[in-house]
Design brief:
This protein is of the alpha/beta class. The chain folds into two domains: about 35-80, no CATH class; about 80-295, Rossmann fold (3-Layer(aba) Sandwich), CATH 3.40.50. It is built from nine helices and eleven strands. Strands 6-5-4-7-8-11 form a six-stranded mixed beta sheet, with helices on both faces. It has a three-stranded antiparallel beta sheet with strand order 1-3-2. β4, α3 (about 105-120) and β5 form a beta-alpha-beta unit. α5 runs parallel beside α6 and α6 (about 190-205) packs parallel to α8 (about 245-265). The chain is elongated, with a radius of gyration of 23 Å. The model has no long low-confidence stretch (mean pLDDT about 85).
Length: about 300
C-alpha cells in the first residue's frame, strides 16, 4: 500500500519521542500519561478523607495515623489518556499558496503529525473539518484504522466554501462532551472577536486549547510589484491595484490583526503558535513541543 502523502516517516521521527502532555486535568478511559479528575489506584495520591466502615485497610495512610492517631484514607489520582479534538479549517482561503504548498496542505500535514504523535502515546484523537459549517466530525479514537480514516479524509477534502470560524467553534464545543485538548489549525481569516468568543467557549468547558495559525509567506510580506488583480479569498469581489500604493496600509492592518489574535489567545489562556507555510512543519512542531515541555 502506498504511503499516505501526508506522512513522511523521516520527518515524523524528529518528533516521535516528544510527548504532547496536557497541562491541565483531562478526562479519559485508558491508563496513560495525563492527570485525570477521577480517583483510582496510582502511586500518587491527591487528598485524604476520614476512614469509614468498609474502606480497604490498604488505603489507610499509616504515616498520617502515626502522626495524628486518626484514621484517614488516601484518595489516589489515576493517570489517564488524553482525548484530543483537532479542528482543521477547510475553507476556500486555505487553498492559497505562493509556493509549492497550500495553507490547507500544510495544515493537514501538521494535523496528521500531531495525530500520529498522540496516538503513539495511546491518546485518543478526533478530527473536525469545517468551513462555514462542520463538514466532517470524527470523535476521538485510538486505533490505527482511525488514523488512516483521518488522513484519508484530509487528503480527499478540497477547501471550497467561505468560513465562519466563530459560530462553527460554538457548534463543535457543543458536541465535545468530555474535557480534553482542542487544537485549532487555521489561517484565522475571520473576525477576531468572533474567534475569541468561540475559543472562550472551549475554555469555559475547561478544555486546554492550542491554536496553530497558518499563513503563507506572500500574505505576510506582500511581495507584489506590478499592477495586480487581487481577489477576495472567500468571496466574489476583486480589485485591480498598484501594490506600491497599498502595501504599507496592508502590512499595518496585518500587524494589527496578528497582534489582536495573539492578545485574544493570551487573555483566554489559549496557547498560540504561528505556523508559516515556508517553515518546515517538523522543525516548527519540534520547537513548539520542546518549548512547551520546558514550561509545563
Amino acid at each position: 500500500m502506498a504511503e499516505n502523502r501526508l506522512i513522511d516517516p523521516k520527518k515524523l521521527a524528529l518528533i516521535s519521542r516528544m510527548e504532547l502532555v496536557a497541562k491541565q486535568v483531562v478526562e479519559g478511559f485508558l491508563s496513560g500519561r495525563h492527570p485525570s479528575p477521577y480517583f483510582g489506584s496510582s502511586v500518587e495520591y491527591a487528598d485524604h478523607r476520614p476512614y469509614t466502615l468498609g474502606d480497604e485497610i490498604r488505603s489507610l495512610d499509616w504515616k498520617l495515623l502515626a502522626k495524628t492517631d486518626k484514621y484517614y484514607v488516601k484518595l489516589f489520582e489515576e493517570e489517564t489518556n488524553l482525548r484530543c479534538n483537532i479542528l482543521l479549517d477547510a475553507s476556500r482561503s486555505m487553498q492559497f499558496k505562493s509556493g509549492e504548498t497550500s495553507k490547507y496542505d500544510y495544515a493537514a500535514t501538521l494535523a496528521a503529525a500531531l495525530a500520529y504523535l498522540m496516538l503513539g502515546q495511546n491518546d485518543a484523537v478526533g478530527l473536525t473539518l469545517f468551513d462555514s459549517r462542520v463538514r466532517h466530525f470524527l470523535p476521538p479514537h485510538t486505533t490505527p484504522t482511525h488514523f488512516r480514516r483521518m488522513t484519508e479524509l484530509m487528503r480527499d477534502t478540497d477547501p471550497r466554501d467561505d468560513t465562519a470560524i466563530g459560530p462553527v467553534l460554538h457548534q463543535i464545543a457543543a458536541r465535545i462532551k468530555r474535557r480534553g485538548m482542542v487544537i485549532l489549525i487555521s489561517d484565522l481569516l475571520d473576525g477576531v472577536d468572533s474567534i475569541a468568543d468561540g475559543l472562550a467557549h472551549f475554555r469555559h468547558d475547561r478544555h486546554e486549547v492550542l491554536v496553530f495559525h497558518v499563513m503563507d509567506r506572500a500574505e505576510l510580506d506582500f511581495p507584489y510589484e506590478r499592477l495586480t488583480r487581487f481577489k477576495d479569498a472567500e468571496g466574489t469581489g476583486s480589485l485591480i491595484a498598484n501594490p506600491k500604493h497599498v502595501r504599507q496600509k496592508y502590512l499595518d492592518r496585518l500587524q494589527r490583526f496578528l497582534t489582536d489574535i495573539k492578545r485574544a489567545c493570551y487573555e483566554r489562556n489559549v496557547t498560540y503558535q504561528f505556523a508559516p507555510t515556508d517553515a518546515p512543519y517538523e522543525k516548527m512542531l519540534s520547537g513548539f513541543l520542546e518549548k512547551r515541555s520546558r514550561t509545563r
